[in-house]
Amino acid sequence: RKWVNTAKLLGAVPGVEVGDRFRFRVELVVIGLHRQFQGGIDYTKKDGKVVATSIVASGRYANDAKCADVLMYCGQGGNPSVADKKPEDQKLKRGNLALKNSMDEGTPVRVIRRRETLKTPSILGARSGRNYAYVYDGLYAVTNCRQQRGPYGKLVFMFRLNRIPGQPKLGRF
Amino acid sequence: RKWVNTAKLLGAVPGVEVGDRFRFRVELVVIGLHRQFQGGIDYTKKDGKVVATSIVASGRYANDAKCADVLMYCGQGGNPSVADKKPEDQKLKRGNLALKNSMDEGTPVRVIRRRETLKTPSILGARSGRNYAYVYDGLYAVTNCRQQRGPYGKLVFMFRLNRIPGQPKLGRF
DNA sequence: TAGACGTAGA
DNA sequence: TCTACGTCTA
Q: Do B125 and A37 touch (CB under 8 A)?
Protein backbone atom coordinates (compact mmCIF):
# COMPACT_ATOMS: atom_id res chain seq x y z
CA ARG A 1 0.00 0.00 0.00
CA LYS A 2 1.05 3.54 -0.66
CA TRP A 3 0.83 6.36 1.82
CA VAL A 4 -0.45 9.64 0.49
CA ASN A 5 0.53 12.91 2.09
CA THR A 6 -1.13 15.96 0.62
CA ALA A 7 1.52 18.12 2.20
CA LYS A 8 4.04 16.79 -0.32
CA LEU A 9 1.94 18.01 -3.21
CA LEU A 10 2.19 21.40 -4.83
CA GLY A 11 -0.70 23.80 -4.62
CA ALA A 12 -3.93 23.77 -2.67
CA VAL A 13 -4.74 21.02 -0.19
CA PRO A 14 -8.23 19.55 -0.59
CA GLY A 15 -10.44 20.49 2.30
CA VAL A 16 -8.36 23.42 3.44
CA GLU A 17 -9.67 26.84 2.53
CA VAL A 18 -8.13 30.27 2.61
CA GLY A 19 -8.60 31.69 6.07
CA ASP A 20 -8.66 28.39 7.92
CA ARG A 21 -7.15 28.77 11.36
CA PHE A 22 -4.98 26.44 13.41
CA ARG A 23 -3.74 26.79 16.94
CA PHE A 24 -0.67 24.59 16.79
CA ARG A 25 2.05 23.93 14.31
CA VAL A 26 1.47 20.23 14.69
CA GLU A 27 -2.04 20.72 13.33
CA LEU A 28 -0.55 21.92 10.07
CA VAL A 29 1.30 18.62 9.88
CA VAL A 30 -1.75 16.51 10.64
CA ILE A 31 -3.98 18.37 8.18
CA GLY A 32 -1.36 18.01 5.47
CA LEU A 33 -0.55 21.67 4.95
CA HIS A 34 3.04 21.74 6.16
CA ARG A 35 5.04 18.73 7.22
CA GLN A 36 7.74 20.48 9.18
CA PHE A 37 7.10 20.31 12.88
CA GLN A 38 9.21 23.38 13.53
CA GLY A 39 10.88 24.27 10.29
CA GLY A 40 9.48 27.21 8.40
CA ILE A 41 10.07 25.88 4.89
CA ASP A 42 8.71 22.59 3.63
CA TYR A 43 9.67 21.15 0.29
CA THR A 44 9.55 18.14 -1.95
CA LYS A 45 11.29 16.82 -5.03
CA LYS A 46 9.97 17.59 -8.49
CA ASP A 47 11.83 16.25 -11.49
CA GLY A 48 14.89 15.70 -9.32
CA LYS A 49 14.94 19.22 -7.95
CA VAL A 50 13.63 20.33 -4.58
CA VAL A 51 10.86 22.90 -4.70
CA ALA A 52 9.02 24.51 -1.82
CA THR A 53 5.55 23.28 -0.99
CA SER A 54 4.73 25.60 1.89
CA ILE A 55 6.16 28.12 4.30
CA VAL A 56 5.13 29.37 7.71
CA ALA A 57 5.68 33.02 8.52
CA SER A 58 5.70 33.22 12.28
CA GLY A 59 7.47 36.53 12.46
CA ARG A 60 10.34 35.02 14.38
CA TYR A 61 12.80 36.28 11.83
CA ALA A 62 11.04 39.63 11.92
CA ASN A 63 11.55 40.24 8.26
CA ASP A 64 8.08 39.62 6.94
CA ALA A 65 6.82 42.77 5.30
CA LYS A 66 3.15 42.95 6.05
CA CYS A 67 2.05 44.51 2.77
CA ALA A 68 -1.13 42.89 1.53
CA ASP A 69 -0.53 40.20 -1.08
CA VAL A 70 3.23 40.54 -0.72
CA LEU A 71 5.41 38.64 1.70
CA MET A 72 9.10 39.13 2.30
CA TYR A 73 10.42 35.90 3.75
CA CYS A 74 13.85 35.36 5.25
CA GLY A 75 15.68 32.14 4.47
CA GLN A 76 16.73 29.57 7.02
CA GLY A 77 20.03 28.74 8.68
CA GLY A 78 22.81 30.86 10.14
CA ASN A 79 20.75 31.61 13.22
CA PRO A 80 19.77 35.08 12.09
CA SER A 81 17.57 35.52 15.13
CA VAL A 82 19.46 33.63 17.80
CA ALA A 83 22.12 35.79 19.38
CA ASP A 84 23.18 32.83 21.46
CA LYS A 85 24.83 30.83 18.72
CA LYS A 86 27.42 32.12 16.32
CA PRO A 87 25.74 33.66 13.29
CA GLU A 88 26.84 32.52 9.87
CA ASP A 89 26.05 33.24 6.27
CA GLN A 90 22.97 31.41 5.09
CA LYS A 91 23.61 28.83 2.42
CA LEU A 92 21.64 28.03 -0.71
CA LYS A 93 20.52 24.62 0.43
CA ARG A 94 17.54 22.88 1.97
CA GLY A 95 14.61 25.27 2.24
CA ASN A 96 16.48 28.16 0.70
CA LEU A 97 17.36 26.15 -2.37
CA ALA A 98 13.78 24.95 -2.57
CA LEU A 99 12.39 28.48 -2.60
CA LYS A 100 14.93 29.51 -5.21
CA ASN A 101 13.88 26.57 -7.37
CA SER A 102 10.23 27.41 -6.85
CA MET A 103 10.96 30.79 -8.35
CA ASP A 104 12.78 29.30 -11.33
CA GLU A 105 10.12 26.65 -11.92
CA GLY A 106 7.19 28.93 -11.23
CA THR A 107 5.56 26.53 -8.81
CA PRO A 108 3.08 27.80 -6.21
CA VAL A 109 3.86 27.91 -2.51
CA ARG A 110 1.29 27.58 0.24
CA VAL A 111 1.65 30.35 2.79
CA ILE A 112 0.64 30.06 6.42
CA ARG A 113 0.94 33.18 8.52
CA ARG A 114 0.90 33.48 12.22
CA ARG A 115 -1.57 36.18 13.22
CA GLU A 116 -2.66 37.78 16.42
CA THR A 117 -6.02 36.66 17.72
CA LEU A 118 -8.17 36.71 20.79
CA LYS A 119 -7.08 34.74 23.81
CA THR A 120 -7.72 31.05 23.32
CA PRO A 121 -7.29 28.43 26.00
CA SER A 122 -4.44 25.96 25.83
CA ILE A 123 -5.34 22.32 25.46
CA LEU A 124 -3.02 21.52 28.31
CA GLY A 125 -4.92 22.25 31.46
CA ALA A 126 -6.90 25.20 30.14
CA ARG A 127 -4.80 27.46 32.31
CA SER A 128 -2.46 29.30 30.04
CA GLY A 129 -3.71 30.86 26.87
CA ARG A 130 -2.24 32.08 23.63
CA ASN A 131 -3.08 35.06 21.55
CA TYR A 132 -2.15 33.89 18.11
CA ALA A 133 -3.06 31.31 15.51
CA TYR A 134 -1.77 30.02 12.20
CA VAL A 135 -3.88 31.06 9.24
CA TYR A 136 -3.76 29.55 5.78
CA ASP A 137 -3.22 32.48 3.49
CA GLY A 138 -3.41 30.80 0.08
CA LEU A 139 -0.97 30.30 -2.76
CA TYR A 140 1.93 32.56 -3.55
CA ALA A 141 4.55 32.75 -6.27
CA VAL A 142 8.19 33.40 -5.48
CA THR A 143 9.07 36.42 -7.58
CA ASN A 144 12.46 37.42 -6.26
CA CYS A 145 15.44 36.08 -4.36
CA ARG A 146 18.32 38.16 -3.16
CA GLN A 147 21.02 38.14 -0.52
CA GLN A 148 21.43 40.88 2.02
CA ARG A 149 23.00 41.53 5.38
CA GLY A 150 21.03 40.29 8.38
CA PRO A 151 20.88 41.78 11.86
CA TYR A 152 24.16 40.12 12.78
CA GLY A 153 26.00 41.27 9.69
CA LYS A 154 25.83 37.90 8.00
CA LEU A 155 24.32 37.15 4.62
CA VAL A 156 20.71 36.01 4.61
CA PHE A 157 18.40 35.15 1.76
CA MET A 158 15.35 37.28 1.29
CA PHE A 159 12.54 35.92 -0.82
CA ARG A 160 9.73 37.99 -2.23
CA LEU A 161 6.41 36.18 -2.62
CA ASN A 162 3.39 37.58 -4.42
CA ARG A 163 -0.07 36.27 -3.70
CA ILE A 164 -1.52 34.58 -6.77
CA PRO A 165 -4.64 36.47 -7.98
CA GLY A 166 -8.10 34.96 -8.04
CA GLN A 167 -8.12 33.58 -4.50
CA PRO A 168 -10.60 34.55 -1.79
CA LYS A 169 -9.69 37.66 0.06
CA LEU A 170 -8.51 37.34 3.62
CA GLY A 171 -11.09 38.89 5.87
CA ARG A 172 -10.47 40.60 9.13
CA PHE A 173 -9.34 38.18 11.71
CA ARG B 1 -14.71 27.68 39.31
CA LYS B 2 -11.53 25.94 40.29
CA TRP B 3 -9.31 23.97 37.96
CA VAL B 4 -8.02 20.67 39.28
CA ASN B 5 -4.81 19.17 38.00
CA THR B 6 -3.97 15.78 39.40
CA ALA B 7 -0.40 16.23 38.27
CA LYS B 8 0.08 18.78 41.03
CA LEU B 9 -0.85 16.22 43.68
CA LEU B 10 1.54 13.93 45.46
CA GLY B 11 1.27 10.20 44.98
CA ALA B 12 -0.74 8.06 42.61
CA VAL B 13 -2.96 9.59 39.95
CA PRO B 14 -6.48 8.14 39.81
CA GLY B 15 -6.99 6.08 36.70
CA VAL B 16 -3.31 5.57 35.97
CA GLU B 17 -1.90 2.17 36.84
CA VAL B 18 1.61 0.88 37.10
CA GLY B 19 2.73 -0.23 33.67
CA ASP B 20 0.55 2.17 31.70
CA ARG B 21 2.30 3.20 28.51
CA PHE B 22 2.39 6.52 26.67
CA ARG B 23 3.93 7.38 23.35
CA PHE B 24 4.47 11.09 23.80
CA ARG B 25 5.59 13.32 26.60
CA VAL B 26 2.60 15.54 26.00
CA GLU B 27 0.35 12.61 26.91
CA LEU B 28 1.83 12.61 30.38
CA VAL B 29 0.75 16.23 30.67
CA VAL B 30 -2.77 15.58 29.44
CA ILE B 31 -3.30 12.54 31.65
CA GLY B 32 -2.06 14.46 34.66
CA LEU B 33 1.05 12.44 35.43
CA HIS B 34 3.72 15.01 34.70
CA ARG B 35 3.10 18.62 33.78
CA GLN B 36 6.46 19.43 32.31
CA PHE B 37 6.36 19.35 28.56
CA GLN B 38 10.09 18.74 28.31
CA GLY B 39 11.49 19.08 31.78
CA GLY B 40 12.37 15.88 33.58
CA ILE B 41 11.38 17.00 37.07
CA ASP B 42 7.95 18.27 38.01
CA TYR B 43 7.18 19.75 41.38
CA THR B 44 4.67 21.63 43.46
CA LYS B 45 4.54 23.58 46.69
CA LYS B 46 3.77 21.88 49.97
CA ASP B 47 3.73 23.94 53.14
CA GLY B 48 5.71 26.62 51.38
CA LYS B 49 8.43 24.28 50.15
CA VAL B 50 8.74 22.81 46.69
CA VAL B 51 8.63 19.04 46.55
CA ALA B 52 8.85 16.80 43.51
CA THR B 53 5.69 15.24 42.18
CA SER B 54 7.11 13.23 39.31
CA ILE B 55 10.19 12.63 37.22
CA VAL B 56 10.78 11.26 33.76
CA ALA B 57 13.86 9.13 33.18
CA SER B 58 14.47 9.26 29.46
CA GLY B 59 18.07 8.21 29.65
CA ARG B 60 19.21 11.41 28.06
CA TYR B 61 21.51 12.11 30.96
CA ALA B 62 22.70 8.52 30.76
CA ASN B 63 23.04 8.19 34.49
CA ASP B 64 20.04 6.09 35.29
CA ALA B 65 21.18 2.89 36.91
CA LYS B 66 18.86 0.21 35.69
CA CYS B 67 18.80 -1.90 38.85
CA ALA B 68 15.29 -3.08 39.58
CA ASP B 69 13.48 -0.95 42.15
CA VAL B 70 16.37 1.50 42.30
CA LEU B 71 16.82 4.54 40.12
CA MET B 72 19.79 6.84 40.03
CA TYR B 73 18.61 10.13 38.65
CA CYS B 74 20.77 13.05 37.61
CA GLY B 75 19.66 16.57 38.47
CA GLN B 76 18.87 19.29 35.99
CA GLY B 77 20.76 22.31 34.77
CA GLY B 78 24.35 22.91 33.78
CA ASN B 79 23.83 21.15 30.47
CA PRO B 80 25.46 17.93 31.59
CA SER B 81 24.60 16.28 28.31
CA VAL B 82 24.90 19.12 25.84
CA ALA B 83 28.48 19.61 24.75
CA ASP B 84 27.35 22.56 22.67
CA LYS B 85 26.73 24.93 25.53
CA LYS B 86 29.16 25.72 28.28
CA PRO B 87 28.75 23.24 31.13
CA GLU B 88 28.30 24.60 34.63
CA ASP B 89 27.83 23.28 38.13
CA GLN B 90 24.26 22.28 38.81
CA LYS B 91 22.55 24.39 41.43
CA LEU B 92 20.23 23.33 44.23
CA LYS B 93 17.18 25.01 42.82
CA ARG B 94 14.06 24.21 40.82
CA GLY B 95 13.75 20.48 40.27
CA ASN B 96 16.93 19.67 42.17
CA LEU B 97 15.72 21.50 45.23
CA ALA B 98 12.36 19.80 44.91
CA LEU B 99 13.90 16.33 44.90
CA LYS B 100 16.08 17.23 47.87
CA ASN B 101 13.00 18.41 49.75
CA SER B 102 11.13 15.26 48.78
CA MET B 103 13.85 13.31 50.50
CA ASP B 104 13.68 15.46 53.63
CA GLU B 105 9.89 15.39 53.74
CA GLY B 106 9.58 11.75 52.79
CA THR B 107 7.05 12.45 50.05
CA PRO B 108 6.54 9.97 47.21
CA VAL B 109 7.60 10.70 43.65
CA ARG B 110 5.94 9.29 40.56
CA VAL B 111 8.46 7.77 38.21
CA ILE B 112 8.01 7.50 34.47
CA ARG B 113 10.69 5.65 32.55
CA ARG B 114 11.33 5.67 28.89
CA ARG B 115 11.67 2.08 27.70
CA GLU B 116 12.43 0.40 24.45
CA THR B 117 9.47 -1.14 22.70
CA LEU B 118 8.40 -2.50 19.38
CA LYS B 119 8.12 -0.17 16.45
CA THR B 120 5.01 1.94 16.71
CA PRO B 121 3.78 4.27 14.00
CA SER B 122 3.98 7.99 14.48
CA ILE B 123 0.71 9.88 14.56
CA LEU B 124 2.13 12.25 12.00
CA GLY B 125 1.70 10.53 8.67
CA ALA B 126 2.24 6.99 9.89
CA ARG B 127 5.52 6.95 8.04
CA SER B 128 8.21 7.20 10.59
CA GLY B 129 8.09 5.10 13.69
CA ARG B 130 9.56 5.15 17.15
CA ASN B 131 10.86 2.34 19.22
CA TYR B 132 10.23 3.61 22.70
CA ALA B 133 7.45 4.60 25.05
CA TYR B 134 7.02 6.20 28.43
CA VAL B 135 5.94 3.78 31.13
CA TYR B 136 4.52 4.68 34.51
CA ASP B 137 6.69 2.87 36.97
CA GLY B 138 4.96 3.68 40.23
CA LEU B 139 5.93 5.59 43.37
CA TYR B 140 9.47 5.99 44.61
CA ALA B 141 11.08 7.53 47.68
CA VAL B 142 14.15 9.72 47.39
CA THR B 143 16.66 8.07 49.72
CA ASN B 144 19.87 9.85 48.88
CA CYS B 145 21.21 13.04 47.36
CA ARG B 146 24.83 13.70 46.61
CA GLN B 147 27.01 15.79 44.37
CA GLN B 148 29.54 14.34 42.02
CA ARG B 149 31.51 15.21 38.92
CA GLY B 150 29.63 14.89 35.67
CA PRO B 151 30.96 13.97 32.24
CA TYR B 152 32.20 17.53 31.68
CA GLY B 153 33.93 17.83 35.03
CA LYS B 154 31.22 19.97 36.55
CA LEU B 155 29.22 19.19 39.68
CA VAL B 156 25.93 17.41 39.16
CA PHE B 157 23.36 16.20 41.63
CA MET B 158 22.70 12.50 41.77
CA PHE B 159 19.53 11.31 43.45
CA ARG B 160 18.88 7.78 44.56
CA LEU B 161 15.25 6.69 44.44
CA ASN B 162 13.93 3.45 45.87
CA ARG B 163 10.69 1.97 44.65
CA ILE B 164 8.11 1.92 47.41
CA PRO B 165 7.14 -1.71 48.28
CA GLY B 166 3.66 -3.09 47.82
CA GLN B 167 3.12 -1.92 44.26
CA PRO B 168 2.41 -4.18 41.30
CA LYS B 169 5.50 -5.58 39.69
CA LEU B 170 6.52 -4.29 36.32
CA GLY B 171 6.10 -7.05 33.79
CA ARG B 172 8.16 -7.60 30.71
CA PHE B 173 7.53 -4.91 28.23
C1' DT C 1 12.43 36.04 29.70
C1' DA C 2 14.83 31.77 30.01
C1' DG C 3 15.12 26.86 30.69
C1' DA C 4 13.65 22.16 29.65
C1' DC C 5 15.59 14.06 29.95
C1' DG C 6 10.93 16.88 22.96
C1' DT C 7 10.13 15.44 17.97
C1' DA C 8 10.26 14.66 13.21
C1' DG C 9 12.43 15.16 8.73
C1' DA C 10 16.66 15.79 5.89
C1' DT D 1 23.45 13.03 13.43
C1' DC D 2 21.81 17.62 13.17
C1' DT D 3 18.55 21.29 12.24
C1' DA D 4 14.29 23.58 12.90
C1' DC D 5 9.94 30.68 12.28
C1' DG D 6 7.80 25.07 18.89
C1' DT D 7 5.62 25.30 23.29
C1' DC D 8 5.14 24.98 27.85
C1' DT D 9 6.11 26.27 33.04
C1' DA D 10 8.58 28.95 36.42
A: no
